[in-house]
Q: What sequence folds into this?
């Protein structure tokens, strides 16, 4: 908008034009400075808790409480040593591996079940499809509490408590409607002429899906996979309900156990453990932030 | 959905002879066969592709919902079979001071936390929409907390930061406020959790920002020509144009706020303390169901929540007609 005022420059009003252009340039510069000042202030506020966590994990315990300083006076890795030494006789890497196994299997399950469901909703016409689509959208708004108790009873009766099945079954059965919806939207953007060409060449739905649609869905699959991984990694209530023996614990459950067991004053080790538990999520975020933010911006996936 | 098919199937016997006669007509192709709306192959493929979802919906959502509706009217402890108690659970709920408190705590959290979170999200989105250099980097940084805000790690960080003599308390002492740590203070523990929720403003912010970018620049230019200041532009252009996005965020964040669990569980050590000030609805439901094994009672709680959330959704949709503007409708 500022460029508009400076645009018509006739030689007769040379000085005036130059002055006006300089003023516009100044205004633009002031605007940029204000923007960066405010944005930087907000960045500090937003990043402070995370930065504090990281630095606290490298401070001696006596400096974590009763101290407002962000950076450690004395740097130490002792907290990481004690965090990595495990909890209650179970190695740290067991928890890490359990979380990783669950997260990876969750991704596999979600991708398998959601892509086929999305293809059916987006590309196949069959009786009951619209009604089922409406039901699926409805499950997006349903509070999960209404199902956790009967689900627990169900898995308890099937003897599956204290296994990973209750945590993975919803993933393999496309229970997260958000991803189906995201994929449907994506498939709708793929030209139907591709399907028709495949049909003329004699492909049924199976081969059209596998050869044509699935390869083109890669961005949607990547976005869904990253979110599934992070949500599975951070999941607390599911493992809290279903995992009883420490050798099956995931990172968040182990972390909570750690906080309950260690003496109240050993904040450093708790912080170190907290950092380690978030590390994979942060790495994922740094690598895939574009996919994550596009997923949120276009589909409104919750954080 | 199946009505066209079943209608044509039942009409078949009557229509068959007539059809036979018609075959000699010149215009047979039109009414040759009752045109099926769905091909057999499509129907079969559709259900095959959808079978995981159907199985999941029936087994993990529909059946459990009915089961919990039944359990809500029973006394059930997981070990002996459920006994029917009629409306007792619901009557007891509303005479249970801890239930009332959990409803109040959750209501306070939803009513305070959601508007503050959305206002912060909108303010930062408008800042980033100034189209300055570095916008993308700021957006990524501001988004990050919403990914980890509900994690156990961050709940523990919050607990240590807000404990007695922790960093927040220290800063308070420096400016002469002596209220101690927020964790152990029943008046401050809910604000502490609301702050944690607000910290995760990034997800609605990204959605707001995407919405702001959709607003045509001509609207602002035209308003400027008419002499509108920033306030007028915000009230008369930004808000109406952004209202569908605001509605979406409001709905999602409100429903999400009802379901908060992790942070309250971790910070209070699973007790909802101090003095029940962090006894969220979901936390109380968990304690009743999985610690006291009052599964009938907890199911009744779950259904009360479903009804409340459904009512709020309905009210939001109803009132949205008054303030949500879809540009498509106006033209």
A:
């Amino acid at each position: 908008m500022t460029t508009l005022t400076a645009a018509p420059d006739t030689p007769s009003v040379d000085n005036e034009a130059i002055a006006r252009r300089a003023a516009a340039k100044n205004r633009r510069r002031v605007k940029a400075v204000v923007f960066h000042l405010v944005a930087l202030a907000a960045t500090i506020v937003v990043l402070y808790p995370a930065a504090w966590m990281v630095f606290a994990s490298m401070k001696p315990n006596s400096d974590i409480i009763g101290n407002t300083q962000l950076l450690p006076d004395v740097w130490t890795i002792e907290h990481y040593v004690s965090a990595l030494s495990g909890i209650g006789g179970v190695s740290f890497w067991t928890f890490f591996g359990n979380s990783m196994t669950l997260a990876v299997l969750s991704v596999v399950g979600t991708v398998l079940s959601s892509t086929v469901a999305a293809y059916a909703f987006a590309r196949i016409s069959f009786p009951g499809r619209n009604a089922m689509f409406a039901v699926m959208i409805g499950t997006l708004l349903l509070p999960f509490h209404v199902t956790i108790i009967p689900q627990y009873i169900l898995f308890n009766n099937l003897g599956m408590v204290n296994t990973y099945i209750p945590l993975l079954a919803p993933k393999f059965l496309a229970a997260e409607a958000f991803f189906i919806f995201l994929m449907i939207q994506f498939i709708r953007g793929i030209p139907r002429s591709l399907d028709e060409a495949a049909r003329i060449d004699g492909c049924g739905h199976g081969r059209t899906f596998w050869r044509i649609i699935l390869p083109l869905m890669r961005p949607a699959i990547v976005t869904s996979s990253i979110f599934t991984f992070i949500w599975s990694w951070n999941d607390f209530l599911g493992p809290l309900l279903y995992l009883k023996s420490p050798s099956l614990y995931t990172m968040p459950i182990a972390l909570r156990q750690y906080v309950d067991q260690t003496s109240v004053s050993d904040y450093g080790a708790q912080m170190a453990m907290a950092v380690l538990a978030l590390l994979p999520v942060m790495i994922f975020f740094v690598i895939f932030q574009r996919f994550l933010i596009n997923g949120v911006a276009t589909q409104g996936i919750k954080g | 959905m199946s009505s066209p098919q079943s209608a044509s199937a039942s009409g078949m016997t009557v229509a068959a002879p007539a059809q036979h006669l018609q075959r000699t007509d010149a215009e047979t192709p039109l009414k040759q066969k009752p045109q099926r709306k769905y091909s057999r192959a499509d129907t079969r493929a559709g259900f095959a592709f959808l079978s995981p979802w159907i199985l999941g919906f029936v087994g993990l959502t529909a059946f459990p919902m009915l089961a919990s509706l039944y359990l809500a009217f029973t006394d059930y402890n997981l070990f002996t079979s459920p006994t029917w108690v009629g409306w007792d659970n619901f009557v007891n709920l509303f005479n249970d001071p801890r239930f009332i408190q959990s409803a109040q705590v959750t209501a306070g959290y939803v009513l305070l936390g959601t508007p503050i979170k959305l206002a912060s999200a909108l303010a930062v989105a408008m800042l980033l929409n100034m189209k300055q250099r570095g916008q993308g980097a700021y957006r990524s940084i501001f988004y990050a907390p919403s990914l980890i805000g509900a994690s156990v790690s961050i709940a523990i960080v919050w607990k240590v930061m807000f404990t007695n003599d922790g960093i927040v308390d220290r800063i308070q002492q420096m400016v002469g406020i002596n209220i101690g740590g927020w964790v152990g203070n029943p008046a401050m523990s809910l604000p502490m959790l609301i702050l944690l929720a607000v910290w995760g403003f990034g997800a609605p912010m990204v959605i707001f920002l995407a919405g702001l970018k959709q607003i045509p620049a001509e609207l602002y230019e035209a308003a400027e020509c008419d002499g509108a200041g920033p306030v007028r532009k915000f009230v008369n252009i930004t808000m109406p144009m952004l209202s569908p996005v605001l509605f979406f965020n409001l709905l999602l964040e409100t429903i999400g706020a009802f379901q908060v669990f992790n942070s309250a569980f971790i910070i209070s050590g699973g007790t909802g303390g101090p003095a029940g000030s962090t006894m969220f609805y979901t936390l109380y439901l968990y304690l009743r169901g999985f610690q006291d094994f009052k599964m009938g009672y907890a199911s009744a709680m779950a259904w009360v929540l479903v009804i409340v959330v459904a009512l709020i959704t309905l009210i939001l949709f109803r009132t949205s007609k008054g303030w949500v503007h879809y540009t498509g409708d106006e033209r």
Remarks:
- Residues 1-29 of chain B have pLDDT under 50 and may be disordered.
- Residues 40-71 of chain B form the longest helix (32 residues).
- The radius of gyration of chain B is 28 Å.
